[in-house]
Specification:
With 228 residues, the chain is of the alpha/beta class. The protein is built from ten helices and six strands.
Length: 228
């Protein structure tokens, strides 16, 4: 399993014996390297060069809790920030653009659909904060991607996200739009908090390694003595 929370779900919902499960944390997804000036050019192409924005990365589906994120972005405390949603449409049929319009977000809400790795890297580096208010995650790669990029993270205090984010994120109640808004306002607007989150995030990422993950899994596949 890729997290202790995922292992607990396997035990609880599927009746898997605990001694049949090993938790092997994956490493972070490496970001592409942008050529000098490329980040600015990409953000300009998207109309974001002069905009302070909060970023969401992920497939659009109900468990990602985007409806409450939109409600949070409509808070007066976040009036100076846009929301950028980068991810393809999944299941659930949520009319998020309609909701954003109804909340008065207008041009402040940008639904980009699926984006390239290069565009994702530019967005992660340019965002004031990453919002990950999911109701449930098995792991949560965008948390580590943002921490690697030096972007403060606001994430849910549920499922695997506290486990993955460590103390390098502001954790909020995903069922409370006001709590999400408050966390984002601090992460995006308080320079002292931002600097602390960025530093803690970079320390946290160091806990995760694909090499360690591979060695751990290999040790399960090849027992002591080399028998396969």
């Amino acid at each position: 399993a890729d997290s202790r929370d995922c292992a607990a779900d396997l035990i609880r919902f599927y009746g898997v014996a605990p001694d049949k499960i090993t938790v092997a944390y994956p490493g972070p997804i490496p970001s592409v390297t942008l050529a000098p000036g490329r980040r600015g050019a990409i953000l300009a192409e998207l109309g974001l060069a002069e905009r302070a924005f909060v970023l969401f990365v992920g497939t659009l589906q109900p468990r990602k809790n985007l409806r409450r994120l939109l409600l949070a972005m409509a808070s007066p405390t976040l009036a100076g920030y846009d929301l950028v949603v980068a991810g393809g449409r999944g299941w659930g049929g949520e009319e998020l653009e309609t909701l954003a319009h109804g909340l008065g977000l207008g041009a402040r809400a940008h639904f980009l659909g699926y984006v390239s790795d290069e565009t994702k890297a530019a967005l992660l580096q340019g965002a004031r904060a990453l919002a990950m208010p999911s109701l449930h995650e098995g792991f949560g790669f965008p948390v580590l991607e943002a921490q690697m990029a030096g972007t403060p993270v606001v994430a849910s205090n549920t499922s695997s996200l506290p486990e993955v984010a460590g103390d390098g994120a502001i954790l909020v109640d995903p069922l409370d739009p006001a709590a999400i808004a408050a966390g984002l306002a601090v992460a995006a607007g308080d320079d002292a908090v931002r600097a602390d989150l960025i530093a803690r995030g970079r320390v946290n990422v160091a806990r995760f390694s694909w090499d360690t993950c591979a060695r751990q899994i290999l040790s399960l596949l090849v027992p002591v003595g080399g028998r396969r």
